[in-house]
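Kindly review both lines to help learners:
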Amino acid sequence: MPRPEMRRANPKSSGGTLRIVAGSLRGSRLEVPDLDGLRPTPDRVRETLFNWLAPVIAGARCLDLYAGTGALGIEALSRGAGECVFIERDRALCVRLQDNLARLRVANARVVNADACGFLAAAPAAAFDLTFLDPPFGADLWAASAQALEQGGWLRPGAFIYLEAPKDAAPPLPANWAVHREGHAGAVRYALYHRLA
């Protein structure tokens, strides 16, 4: 969905493109529409994240909540994830994401046009190995999303959860989510959590 707060001070995306960093789709470009608050994860942060995930990404079942451009989920698929479900409430972004997946000939992906919290209120068909949790910064959805993921059966034992939030934010998260790795990019903290038994 369009995200109301940017990583930088600029309140609006300038559009452009971003690239898939590595894997079978390496070098592929995704168009970034010029929408207020759309803030895709930068190449450098994605490269760091997927270096952390290298031992566990092959065959992983992924959930990209608040998908936006879908850059995180597409990067996961490029690097060998088994499948990815993209959740995005903005219809235009869903159409663009579906077009990008078709253009890149990605078959193991599904795009759902839905509000993420509403989607998580249903029972999952199967749990996920890896979830990308990067909600709009101004909407304060981290705690509600994390609780729904944890209590709704969406996460497998030992699952990983990637989270982005403002550097000075401390969203309450489930007690069994342990920080695996973390870093900062400007005013944003990004962290990979490991779900403990």
The beta strands are 16-19, 29-32, 61-65, 83-88, 109-113, 128-133, 155-166, 177-185, 188-195. The first helix runs from residue 43 to 53.
